[in-house]
Amino acid sequence: MKTIFVATVAIAGLCSAYPKAARDWKPSDLGDSRSPCPLLNALANHGYLPHGGRDLDRDTVLGALKEAVNIDRPLTDIFFQAALNMTVPLANATELSLHHLIQHNAIEHDASLSRPDAFFSSHQDVFDPAIFAETRSYWPDPVISVRQAAAARLGRLQTSNRTNPAFELNKTGALASVAETAIYLIAFGDVEAGTVRREYVEYLFEHERLPLELGWEKSKFVLTQAHLEAMSGRVVAETNSLLHGASVMDATADLQSPPAGDEL
Hints:
disordered N terminus; heme; mainly alpha; Chloroperoxidase; disordered C terminus; single chain; signal; 45% helix; Chloroperoxidase-like_sf
């Protein structure tokens, strides 16, 4: 996979009783800038990013992801630069706002785990409970495995392809989709086992809040590009297995772009 696209959306979903790194949480206010990414929104709600979500420079974004979830600065820098290039409508921009990431088919894409397709709504910054209910239906156990995470992503692709007459998943979107799944597995779960507690992921998506109250702690080691690429590869492998195995879900033959393999 092309590193820049994998990294782009990987980054493209803390009270005195918790660790000292914790920050108070406040939900977004009317007029705040928010993105399709629950993790970035959570960082703004916690104050790692400015609560308004606007005019974010490189050092602010790199520092926020390092402090909050221990993602290393080089990986975040790839994301930040790509986001500037693809979503900010200003030449030589040095800052972005979270709402810039809503631009369809730049970083945001069809078949989100928790947002409506652009054909149905322009509010990709807003969590959609019905869409997330479909995603959750593929997580029957208290711990989500890589296979279940891949199944949820694939199920959303199939539903979107079947119901959205303007469905499109270009290569950037496909790689972003894989990376988004990989990032919640590595940032909130066990990197080696490829598992994550379901309640952590649900809490992040539903509340746009880090799941510290549930016992989650940020990784004790720095999460790098190598971790992201390795987990992305595992998601792709499980996707291929689902597509070609007996448990394959309906409509796989009709996926427009891409149909299978590393493109997914």
